[in-house]
Amino acid sequence: MIRIDTSLTPRSLRRQTDRLFEVSEAKIRSIDRRWDPRMGAPVVTRDGAYTSRGWTEWTQGFQFGSALLQFAATGDMKDLAIGRDGTNRHMARHVSHVGVHDHGFNNVSTYGNLYNLAKSGAFRADEGEIRCYELALKVSGAIQAARWTRLPEGLGFIHSFNGPHSLFADTIRSLRSLALSHRLGHALLAEGDQEVSLLGRLLVHAETTARYNVYFGAGRDGYDVRGRVAHESIFNTTGGSYRCPGTQQGYSPFSTWTRGLAWVICGYAELLEFLDALPDHELSGRGGKAAVMRRFTAVARATADFYIENTPTDGVPYWDTGAPGLARMGAYLDRPAEPFNDHEPVDSSAAAIAAQGLVRLGRHIGAKRQATAGARYLSAGLTIARTILSEPYLSRSTRHQGLLLHSVYHRPNGWDHIPKGRKVPCGESSMWGDYHARELGLLLQRMAARAPYYTFFGC
Length: 459
Description:
- With 459 residues, the chain is mainly α.
- The chain has a single domain, classed as Glycosyltransferase (Alpha/alpha barrel), CATH 1.50.10.
- The chain has 14 helices and nine strands.
- The longest helix has 21 residues.
- It is globular and about 60 Å long.
């Protein structure tokens, strides 16, 4: 269980966030100089150098989005140029990609960051450039929403690249694309010019994920533990009935893949912030704003509690709560994570994602007259941040292109590099882990300075 340090504040971590962006700079420049776009998107490192690997190009937005976060944190125009030019040259095809559930990852990290930075006056952009970003975000959200599987009882979901039967937990964070498109006044036009509300689909997907991918300790099956998350939910698309939990990157459908858990924590925390900023009338036909907020707060808190209770004392989880090698590690939850152990890898990328979610959740519910609970989640997020923004997780070597070490991609498929002399993957980085470490760093930097709070929707 995480040993939460209640003395931490964003300001007390300012030295670490400054150092994060200091070491980040050289890594962004190294990737920009050496990466050959013909290889596809960079995904994970091997011996310290980024390589391509994967099912789809779901990480390219993190490549250019990282440079934009660096610019937001430091004001260095060279990083703006890397992120801006990379987006303009390589990201258009992701806007119109009908085959994936990853629009929130690719397009919000690039076009979304550029739009918010331009609108805030962080750099000079003419009206045509801003309209270009708006159009990309509008189209991305609509295309993501069109990837829809309809279920009985008014439910439904954006299906994964596995097909219309498959609901992934991590898609919750791609709802950002629908949110931004809706905020820009857009809607999906379906057959017969039927107008489909993007906010409506966002809310339905979030409710379906809550009902089937998240557990609440209500006896749904023999492994129903409050806050546990199934990576995948599988449905019979003929009648729409739920069939079973599944997983692609976890150990078992009945254990919890910790990066999937982290996506849910962060996704619902961001969703709460977004919905809180909407006028009440936009949710009046959906049970009312108060009811929607209560439901999604319960999801976020259940998963946050599970993460805190099932993670080592320093806040970095092992890659899956049911990974078989953990049984040989004794009381592994009662001590800091061990990235160089011989049994199971840790996943620092899950820690970076979860830390941001906990900070956002703590801040949100703390402002809703739940000060004690809010302070607990905020302190838990800061405790994780202190760990991963320090060695052995923060990579200070200029010879390593990765920023956040000890990230894991796909343990069941054996896609993660095992260094010579080691028995499990360690010492490598991922595009999403590095991006979310920077996003966490920017969030904490802004909070410490009492600067405008960083959100994907810009206010």
